[in-house]
């Protein structure tokens, strides 16, 4: 049972790989307030490439692979770079960076090289993966910019629909026991089957208030179901769906205008 629980908890942490690391955002002042920005406009500035590579080599923090943190502002619908903070911790003002001199007018660096979308976030974190900027906040503004000039703004609201039980150890122990008991029942009913079955599960069929009415269950190819046992598969799907829906084991999100139901990998050992 402890082994099964360990496998479940390993998958339910939402950490993809050891090398993937969540990155710190940039800072931006907009409409008189400071926000976190999950966009790096200097990546699009070719003149900054050589200095960027140098700063990247000097930095040792895995949460800031780019080697610096930019501080920006939007004034009169124009995007400006005020300064960057490299490893030394001392502000390196944009107007003093030789590579950016061509963009400097009246003592300020206007980001006229940038034509893309800025992602400016605020509020609490709704969904987080330990990788890059793969996280979502309650409020997100997508600011479309053309040659440094703001052309449009789109506001998106994100929310958690079902909290899930990934951090509830008591709920996880009960779920582990449920999977262990299910495996024993299946092996008794289908003695010709043995070994471990891995099933991907996620919510599906959403109704009022975006609540799910079913759980999609798919089995990994090339597993230990030796006899193409469709009856056993149907039984697994039904019992998993009923338990997950009744206990709200998995989380569910509304992100960027869409319902997001992450897949979870569950082990069932027939023994």
The percent range for strand residues is 35-45%
- DSSP helix count? 4
Q: What number is the mean pLDDT?
A: 89
Sketch the topology as an H/E string, one letter per element: HEEHEEEEEEEEEHEEHEEE
Q: Explain this structure to me?
A:
With 271 residues, the protein is α+β, with helices and mostly antiparallel strands. The chain folds into 2 domains: 26-157, no CATH class; 162-270. Helix content is 22%, strand content 38%. It is built from 4 helices and 16 strands. The protein has helices spanning 2-12, 49-58, 169-189, 230-247; strands at 26-30, 33-37, 69-75, 78-85, 92-93, 104-105, 108-110, 116-128, 135-146, 149-157, 159-162, 195-206, 212-219, 252-255, 258-260, 264-270. Strands 1, 2, 3, 4, 5, 6, 7, 8, 9 and 10 form a 10-stranded mixed β-sheet that branches. 25% of the residues are buried.
